[in-house]
Amino acid sequence: MKKYAVVFEKAPNNWAAYVPDLPGCVTTGRTLEETRRLIRETG
To answer: Which end of the chain is more exposed for a tag (fewer CB within 10 A), N or C?
Structure first.
């Protein structure tokens, strides 16, 4: 399985995540835990 770096950013009301090496691989979630789960499902 190939590994990619994920960037997490905290916004005032949610979290965002994206994978710089995979254009379009982005997600947002209400919590960091939710965002981590969602970015795994997206990739």
So the answer is: N
CA distances (Å), 14 to each of 5, 21, 32, in order? 20, 23, 8
Domain assignment of residue 34, given as a range: 7-42
CA nearest 6: which of 15, 21, 14?
A: 21
> Cα-flanking dihedrals φ and ψ of residue 21, to 5°?
-80, -5
| Total number of domains constituting the chain | 1
Do the domain assignments include residue 1?
no
Is position 2 within any domain?
Answer: no
